[in-house]
């Protein structure tokens, strides 16, 4: 039972760190891009949309990695179970 609790704790800590990293990334994105929008509007041009879109793609990818495909998530666990079933079907019984 101890080993299982240890693995569960390790997974929980890993997922919590991943989520905290995403929240940090999103906060930095919002603060920096607010500053870029202010500079853009002060200069009379609307160029800030380009870094927002580019960085936004990276933030989206980070969010998908954390919320959908991280170990322990339903989507990831379903994929792992299907792969295990496929591999088990290929392995010949001894």
UniProtKB/TrEMBL annotation:
Top-level division of the source organism's lineage: Bacteria
Transmembrane segments: 20-42, 48-70
Domain 2TM: 11-69
Keyword terms: Membrane, Transmembrane, Transmembrane helix
This protein's name: 2TM domain-containing protein
Species whose genome carries this gene: Variovorax humicola
